[in-house]
Amino acid sequence: MDDERYAFVVEWYEEIAGRTRQFQFFYYVNSKCIEMFDLKTRKVFLRTSVKDNEITLPDLFIGGSINILGRKLTIIDYGEEYTRRKLSEKKEKTLGMIKPDGVEKLGQILDEIYKRGFLLTRLRMCCLDRNQAFRFYEEHRDKPFFNALIDYITSGPIIVFEIVNTNAVDNWREAIGPTDPSRARTVAPTSIRAQYGIDVTRNVVHGSDSAASAVRELEFFFPSSGPMLPNTSKGGNCTCCLIKPHAVKAGMTGKIISAITEAGFRIGAAQMMVLEKANAEEFLEVYKGVVHEYNGMVAELTAGACIALEVLSDTQNTVQVFRELAGPADPVSFLFVTMSLWGCDVWDYV
């Protein structure tokens, strides 16, 4: 059987040398083999194979990031015309937003995104001030609802995210439904606005209305250069929850967040990120030399995108109460612990 091969150009920032290197990256679909060639020297840099589902073809798209042996690689172009023809028309990126009234439904809405076949590639919680909101909604400045829209969108935190799918702009617009939730409940009863929307203003979610708008809106919230909008971290009586890469990849993010909020906790901040090996080692430093699984824990945290959450509660001991909800690190022990997050997002100690 032929092993279908796709080629890309990827970048890796080598921290020790302080330089960015480019590679020809080959991915073999059936054997799960990977080859990397240094574009300057034309020499082989790496040949290896990956586990099933560690890297799949849907993960490989322009602008996406993957992690190979602790190296964060950013895909910047197709490496050959065959790959460009096969994949360029299939994948499209768009911006989605959960508006202030929908943030408490974050888990359920993310679950809808996964169920509909979208790949979640970037996510963060932020707040807009009035000037930022004016810039984002500039095209609506002359509309009668503009001032009400600005008041609403600046009334609390929002969740913005990048999703990838075939014809992502149109498919996401179809998934969220008509602007008016009342109409959505009639003509698109399974749409997100039909399920969670209140009225034309408080209609839960936003979607880019064209490919050009998607490019502009993604650049607004996820700029290619310069600072991003500040996060919404409140500090104080809170704890950190990290949804690990294997759980993100398996589409468990929505279910995990729903379990957290249904237990009475609140999400104060959220951000998706891909950790370099050095970052993961620093984050897990307290476990080094303490648990045998340390190296595996580092490998897991660098295996793909993870999602960091600031978790808040009304109790004075949020850290301890949340650890009780999370349950034992070894999910085998989940058999003896009910209502445990580990039981739904982890398959082994790592």
Automatic annotation (TrEMBL):
<dbReference type="GO" id="GO:0006183">
    <property type="term" value="P:GTP biosynthetic process"/>
</dbReference>
<feature type="domain" description="DM10">
    <location>
        <begin position="2"/>
        <end position="91"/>
    </location>
</feature>
<keyword id="KW-0966">Cell projection</keyword>
<feature type="active site" description="Pros-phosphohistidine intermediate">
    <location>
        <position position="206"/>
    </location>
</feature>
<protein>
    <recommendedName>
        <fullName>DM10 domain-containing protein</fullName>
    </recommendedName>
</protein>
<feature type="binding site">
    <location>
        <position position="145"/>
    </location>
    <ligand>
        <name>ATP</name>
    </ligand>
</feature>
<dbReference type="GO" id="GO:0004550">
    <property type="term" value="F:nucleoside diphosphate kinase activity"/>
</dbReference>
<feature type="binding site">
    <location>
        <position position="173"/>
    </location>
    <ligand>
        <name>ATP</name>
    </ligand>
</feature>
<keyword id="KW-0378">Hydrolase</keyword>
<keyword id="KW-0963">Cytoplasm</keyword>
<feature type="binding site">
    <location>
        <position position="193"/>
    </location>
    <ligand>
        <name>ATP</name>
    </ligand>
</feature>
<dbReference type="InterPro" id="IPR001564">
    <property type="entry name" value="Nucleoside_diP_kinase"/>
</dbReference>
<dbReference type="GO" id="GO:0005813">
    <property type="term" value="C:centrosome"/>
</dbReference>
<dbReference type="GO" id="GO:0005879">
    <property type="term" value="C:axonemal microtubule"/>
</dbReference>
<dbReference type="InterPro" id="IPR006602">
    <property type="entry name" value="DM10_dom"/>
</dbReference>
<dbReference type="GO" id="GO:0006241">
    <property type="term" value="P:CTP biosynthetic process"/>
</dbReference>
<dbReference type="InterPro" id="IPR036850">
    <property type="entry name" value="NDK-like_dom_sf"/>
</dbReference>
<feature type="binding site">
    <location>
        <position position="203"/>
    </location>
    <ligand>
        <name>ATP</name>
    </ligand>
</feature>
<dbReference type="GO" id="GO:0006228">
    <property type="term" value="P:UTP biosynthetic process"/>
</dbReference>
<feature type="binding site">
    <location>
        <position position="99"/>
    </location>
    <ligand>
        <name>ATP</name>
    </ligand>
</feature>
<feature type="binding site">
    <location>
        <position position="179"/>
    </location>
    <ligand>
        <name>ATP</name>
    </ligand>
</feature>
<dbReference type="InterPro" id="IPR034907">
    <property type="entry name" value="NDK-like_dom"/>
</dbReference>
<dbReference type="Pfam" id="PF00334">
    <property type="entry name" value="NDK"/>
</dbReference>
<dbReference type="GO" id="GO:0016787">
    <property type="term" value="F:hydrolase activity"/>
</dbReference>
<keyword id="KW-0206">Cytoskeleton</keyword>
<comment type="similarity">
    <text>Belongs to the NDK family.</text>
</comment>
